[in-house]
Write a sequence for this structure.
């Protein structure tokens, strides 16, 4: 199914799935913060954080490597941090000569690089768990309850609804372009660069005008059902005792991680 | 979507809904409508629909069918008079009128604008100011009417075209309208979904005005037919006798259904 | 799997993941971003009609979808859109900030493309900076010929990408994650190319819109979305990019020294992480607390300046409108 690309939600009925989305959002953010606060090379802290990820994964009924595999998407960005291996002063580990330059990786540099990478992987793993166990509409509710400005929440809500619709429209545009552009062997398809850019620009422009018209039609459909400028919705989420308990437990674990990684 | 609980101003809609009289369900008198760009889309349109009638609205593209429909619950405001259940369509009546006229748009992706089916069906009742328990009850009831009770928690974009169309109908049924107005309900449906939709429309005990190109459905479902062309009503009468008038049909680009 | 193709190897370079920025940098950029976004939200609630609610969401989805549209450039790379400059030109700066915030937020939450805690920095780089520079420059072309407008729009799009790349490199450097002399030329070099795709598609899309619906981009519309003061904003950021980028690329040590002299960073790379000492007992030591408080004060000052600027821009916009109606 084409639309499944938008939904990282894995349906389930675990304690994690049922947890109030507000609690999940806050715990996720605090977990990420906790990772950033774990000092470089405090491996115990990182291991404990990973354990927390694995326990939640298991609790949510997901495969144990579910988040580990998906978290690898941060790796390309690691390139930006590679330079710290050679920049942080410390004991030289080797000396690499490339042309006129000499690179000296240091122990401190390597520790710092790995720490950055591990922080990043752990953080994205928790974010994946959040999306995998919480339907996006529930996340939108949670954000509203966490006092995000109303225009932003409404924008997110309508955006989520029309993401698939517009990307299907785009796919059709792209397919039509492909159907019309033949390619000679050894030549670029679709004419000179400027021409190709112009075609892409036209497609974007067309998509914009269609979106504008859709905005108008949706607005009319809302008017027809009594919309007067205020958006009402019911509040299906009420904090239960186990929500508070889980929140407290998670906070205690995060505090413990911070203390243990500083011993 | 943002959470604001309905307040006193929306509760007043309830009171006024209760006061609506048992006048003709829909009365349009000498309605003219001109678009802001000067294009005249409706001229001198008059139409009466009694309670319980099921009426088809046919005509070529650009005849003014959609413009007329948008005038019936005050999204467009033309010159002339539109009355729903004895209530004039004018600014101070709009909240009530919009609950009385259930308008289903052609493209269900425009009609279903909330992430989940529940939120979409609850949108109308919530904006009418109904209390929470009543909203839940209405959502259940409306989805049951269109045979989609199991779909409450589904995401709108996961639905098939036929399912979307039926849920679009549920979104207005939940408002308990006096008249159901549908724009091209059978367009874009495969034969089986179309059949299901026709059966659903037949079953619904509601006054209906349906704009369509589907002449077979007209013959099947609607005892009365209104033909529009170039912004005017050119014929209004029993479907069977209008279908016999080949010259009339041909003059307005329509075809008599075979079989 | 359409979406996967939207994020070709070229895009994610501005979407910073969590873990790459220090707490202080994260905090400061959150405060700046919150200031901008809440002003945008308040302004849109007051100044615009109720039809904006669905429109903004659909246009955010549009930006998302438009990022899927690419065109082959050379050697297997392709040009495509980030969309910040286009959004600000067709929507005005405040609406664009909100739309881009939704886009970047959804990318982080739905696809883990960009981190949660560093989202403030990502929104600043790809949504706020692009909106300010893009609208500011385009606003300066009001009343000029179509050709000039398209050229300026293209330049604005290119600069918006460069500004984002510049700011990303500075954030990484201030966090002690990268050395400036490598990350800055690399980032700017790659994005100078990516920016060309951005410029071409933005100008192409605008040309199409001007042809089909000229009313949407008429001078009256554009001046109504923001007053002349925006030109100053655009010029200042442009100047900063133009001056800072070559300076930092050619002489990163210079920038580093300036930063040290003025106490932005203490002593080169490892120092930002001294903010979080690993020798003290749990919680935050005295030094770290004071640094964070200093950072917070700095951010509050910046936020205050932003609010003042917003008021100034609003006044000048309304006086412009008065001129137009007189």
């Amino acid at each position: 199914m084409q639309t499944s690309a938008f939904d990282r939600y894995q349906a389930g009925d675990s304690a994690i799935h049922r947890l109030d989305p507000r609690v999940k959002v806050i715990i996720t953010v605090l977990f990420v913060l906790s990772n950033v606060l774990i000092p470089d090379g405090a491996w115990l802290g990182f291991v404990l954080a990973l354990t927390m990820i694995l326990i939640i994964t298991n609790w949510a009924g997901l495969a144990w490597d579910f988040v580990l595999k998906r978290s690898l998407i941060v790796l390309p960005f690691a390139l930006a941090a590679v330079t710290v291996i050679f920049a942080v002063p410390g004991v030289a580990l080797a000396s690499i000569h490339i042309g006129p330059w000499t690179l000296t990786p240091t122990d401190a540099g390597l520790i710092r690089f790995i720490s950055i990478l591990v922080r990043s992987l752990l953080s994205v793993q928790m974010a994946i768990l959040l999306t995998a166990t919480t339907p996006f509409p529930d996340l939108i509710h949670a954000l509203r309850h966490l006092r995000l400005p109303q225009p932003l929440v409404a924008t997110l809500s309508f955006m989520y609804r029309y993401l698939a619709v517009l990307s299907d429209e785009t796919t059709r545009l792209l397919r039509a372009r492909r159907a019309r552009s033949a390619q000679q062997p050894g030549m670029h398809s679709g004419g000179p660069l400027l021409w190709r850019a112009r075609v892409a620009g036209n497609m974007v422009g067309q998509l914009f005008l269609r979106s504008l018209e859709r905005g108008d039609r949706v607005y009319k459909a809302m008017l027809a059902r009594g919309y007067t400028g205020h958006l009402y919705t019911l509040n299906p989420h009420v904090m239960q005792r186990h929500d508070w308990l889980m929140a407290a437990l998670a906070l205690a674990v995060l505090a413990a991680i911070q203390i243990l990684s500083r011993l | 979507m943002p959470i604001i609980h309905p307040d006193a101003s929306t509760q007043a809609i309830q009171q006024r809904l209760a006061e609506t009289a048992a006048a003709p369900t829909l009365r349009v008198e000498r309605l003219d409508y001109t678009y802001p760009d000067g294009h005249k889309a409706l001229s001198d349109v008059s139409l009466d629909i009694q309670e319980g009638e099921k009426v088809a609205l046919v005509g070529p593209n650009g005849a003014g069918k959609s413009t007329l429909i948008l005038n019936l619950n005050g999204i467009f405001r033309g010159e002339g008079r539109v009355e729903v259940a004895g209530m004039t369509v004018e600014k101070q009546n709009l909240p009530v009128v919009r609950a009385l006229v259930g308008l289903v748009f052609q493209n269900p992706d425009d009609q279903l604008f909330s992430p989940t089916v529940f939120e979409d069906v609850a949108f109308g009742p919530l904006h009418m100011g109904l209390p929470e328990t009543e909203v839940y009850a209405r959502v259940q009831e409306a989805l049951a009417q269109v045979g989609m009770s199991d779909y409450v928690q589904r995401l709108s974009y996961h639905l098939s075209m036929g399912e979307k169309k039926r849920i679009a109908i549920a979104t207005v049924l939940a408002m308990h309208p006096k008249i159901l107005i549908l724009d091209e309900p059978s367009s874009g449906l495969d034969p089986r979904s179309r059949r299901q939709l026709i059966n659903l429309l037949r079953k619904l005990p509601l006054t209906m005005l349906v704009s369509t190109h589907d002449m077979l459905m007209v013959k099947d479902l609607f005892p009365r037919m209104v033909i529009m062309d170039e912004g005017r009503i050119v014929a209004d009468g029993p479907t069977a006798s209008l279908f016999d008038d080949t010259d009339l049909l041909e003059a307005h680009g329509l075809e008599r259904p075979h079989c | 799997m359409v979406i996967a193709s939207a994020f070709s190897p070229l895009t994610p370079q501005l979407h910073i993941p969590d873990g790459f920025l220090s707490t202080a940098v994260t905090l400061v950029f959150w405060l700046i971003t919150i200031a901008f976004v809440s002003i945008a939200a308040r302004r849109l609630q007051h100044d615009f009609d109720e039809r904006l609610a669905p429109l903004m969401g659909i246009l955010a989805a549009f930006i998302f979808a438009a990022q899927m549209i690419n065109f082959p450039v050379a050697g297997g790379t392709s040009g495509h859109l980030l969309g910040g400059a286009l959004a600000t030109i067709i929507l005005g700066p405040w609406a664009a900030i909100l739309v881009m915030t939704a886009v970047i937020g959804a990318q982080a939450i739905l696809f883990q493309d960009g981190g949660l805690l560093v989202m403030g920095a990502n929104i600043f780089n790809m949504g706020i900076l692009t909106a300010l520079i893009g609208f500011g420059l385009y606003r300066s072309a009001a009343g000029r010929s179509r050709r000039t407008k398209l050229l300026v729009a293209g330049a604005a799009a290119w600069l918006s990408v460069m500004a984002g790349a510049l700011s990303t490199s500075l954030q990484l450097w201030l966090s002690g994650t990268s050395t400036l002399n490598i990350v800055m030329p690399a980032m700017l070099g790659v994005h100078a190319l990516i920016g060309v795709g951005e410029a071409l598609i933005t100008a192409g899309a605008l040309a199409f819109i001007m042809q089909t619906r000229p009313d949407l981009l008429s001078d009256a519309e554009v001046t109504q979305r923001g007053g002349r003061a925006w030109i100053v904003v655009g010029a200042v950021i442009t100047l900063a990019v133009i001056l800072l980028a070559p300076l930092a690329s050619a002489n990163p040590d210079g920038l580093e020294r300036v930063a040290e002299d003025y106490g932005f960073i203490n002593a080169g790379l490892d120092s930002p992480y001294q903010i979080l000492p690993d020798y003290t007992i749990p919680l935050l030591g005295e030094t770290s607390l004071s640094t964070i408080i200093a950072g917070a004060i700095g951010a509050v000052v910046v936020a205050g300046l932003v609010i003042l600027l917003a008021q100034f821009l609003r006044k000048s916009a309304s006086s412009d409108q008065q001129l137009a109606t007189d």
Observations:
- The radius of gyration of chain B is 18 Å.
- The longest strand of chain B covers residues 40-49.
